[in-house]
Amino acid sequence: MNAVTCGPEWGDRRSSDAVGISSPWAAFHFLARIDRSRLTHSAAFRRLQGKTQVVGVGENEFFRTRLTHSLEVAQIGATLADRLLWFSGRAEWSHWVPWLPPEHLIETACLAHDIGHPAFGHNGEKILNYFMLDHGGFEGNGQTLRLLTKLGEYSDGYGYDLTRRSLLAVVKYPVLFAEVAPDYPSRPERVPRNLTAWHPPKCLLDDEAAVRDWLVAPFSEADRRRFITPQEVEKVEAGIPIKGLRARYKSLDCSIMELADDIAYGVHDLEDALAVGLLSPQQVVADLDELLRRVPALEQGRKRREADYYVSRIASGEPRLLKQAITNLVHFLVTQTVPVELGLFDHPLLDYQMQLKPEGAEILRQLKGYVFDQVIAQPRIRTLEYKGQQIIAELFEAFRDNPKDLLPRSLSARIEPGCGHSLHRTVCDYIASMSDGEATAIYQRLFLPGNGSIFEPW
A Pfam family matched by this chain, by name (predicted)? Predict the structure, then answer.
């Protein structure tokens, strides 16, 4: 494996194969900064401030939106990249040095990881997948790659035109919809009120097959085959039973991004729920007492805290003490990460992974499960997601049936005459780009009494 050199192909963009920089390491740093700047100045990134993370936008100014969540994921991801650099200074890991991801590259992946997710959380995903079953499917992570490589505003036809390595860092599930879609039930004439049966698989969209081929082109044939071949799984993830074919592998850079995302989800969403009263400190301490007392026992060296450190601070109900507990819990989970060599791939970018130690992984698993059960699955949260599902359903049918009259002309011009696939994908792209507020405003203009105004955004 060590014979595989860090070549310039990882700095390639789809619009050009030449990066113009002789040193691959210099190229990664220089181009990763450009990639990050494109993300932070993009319209899709700004729209994340209007997309739901857990609680609907506008419910409470304290709650994280997908924008603030992404910023925090980027900070945690950069810290994990620094931790990997620390490991590379040890003799047994010195061979990692040519493949260390620049901090800018990890930040790019973290900032980008949610930009394809539609309004109204996972219910937005489900309803769009329902309409797109015969047209390549829909899934938020898959839409992220589509936005980055086709729809973004920084190029003609190549989207944000990020480097190959930046894009590979975003791809959590390198399998296509057609390769992993379950046997969905027949769709009724009217949109059903419960869309659980049409939950999207974790995948890329079928329209992105050529992009996937380009991304994995530098790998050996054996690596490509193993990397993109789905495998049978059966587990529960975020409260949802997962059974069927699923992607199993991701790149080194993506493993860092996903860890950062999981840590932010499991800890910061718990902080939100405590801070605004969705959960009481007494309830959380009673439910998580054993887990919270386990953390100090696993902390190392001078950073080890007293056994009741997390319990007492969360139980206090004092915002300052809660923030201390949350900050140090994030730090603990970061220090639980280690590099791992899988021994399955020829290429280092696939064979090296960043993972949590078993104890840390179990603590994070329980935190994420608790947040899902006690916060995300609460009926008062679900009712808002359900309303969003109905808004998207009616918007989709209206735009699909009246594209020339209702879609912006710049979008209706993209529809190939007589092509149902082109029509559906164009409508889906348009709705997926909307923030919660944009989707609600357009719905009100189309379906609720009132004249509206020709000067309203469209």
Answer: HD_assoc
Same domain, 213 and 288: no
445 assigned to some structural domain: no
Confidence of residue 455 (pLDDT cuts 50, 70, 90): low
Q: Is residue 41 a part of any domain in this protein?
A: yes
Helices (H), 161-306: 164-170, 177-180, 209-216, 221-228, 252-275, 281-298
Query: Do residues 332 and 298 lie in contact, with contact meaning Cβ atoms separated by under 8 Å?
Result: yes
Helix (H) or strand (E) holding 352: strand 352-356
pLDDT in tens, 192-223: 888 888 899 999 999 999 999 999 999 999 99
Asked whether 138 and 200 are in contact (CB, 8 A), the reply is: yes
Q: Are 142 and 116 in contact (CB under 8 A)?
A: yes
Do residues 139 and 125 touch, judged by C-beta distance below 8 A? yes
pLDDT tens digits for 54-88? 555 555 555 778 898 999 999 999 999 999 988 88
- Is residue 309 domain-shared with residue 184, that is, in the same domain? no
- The whole-angstrom separation of Cα 54 and Cα 112 is 18
| Residue 318 resides in a domain | yes
Which amino acid would we find at residue 425? R
Mean pLDDT in residue range 21-43: 80
d(CA 336, CA 355): 8
239-266 tens-digit pLDDT: 556 678 899 999 999 999 999 999 998 8
Query: Model pTM greater than 0.85?
Result: yes
The amino acid present at 63, given as its one-letter code, is F
- Residues in Cβ contact with 156 at an 8 Å cutoff, skipping those fewer than 6 apart: none
Is 136 found in the same domain as 35?
yes
The residue to which tokens 């056994």 are assigned? 307
With a CB cutoff of 8 Å and minimum separation 6, the contacts of 276 are: 55, 60, 62, 63
CA 435 to chain centre: 16
Whether residue 253 is found in the same domain as residue 293 = no
Range of the domain at 304: 279-335
Overall number of domains in the chain: 2
Same structural domain for residues 196 and 216?
yes
- What burial letters (b/e) apply to 389-410, b meaning 16+ CB within 10 Å? bebbbebbebbbeebeebbeee
Tokens coding 295: 């953390």
CATH of the domain at 32: 1.10.3210.10
- In this prediction, residue 19 carries a pLDDT of 53
> Could you tell me if 305 and 226 lie in one domain?
no
Two tokens at 144? 């992220």
| Beta bridge mates, 353 | 340
Q: Is the pLDDT of residue 287 over 80?
A: yes
90 and 59 within one domain:
yes
Mean pLDDT score across all residues of the chain = 87
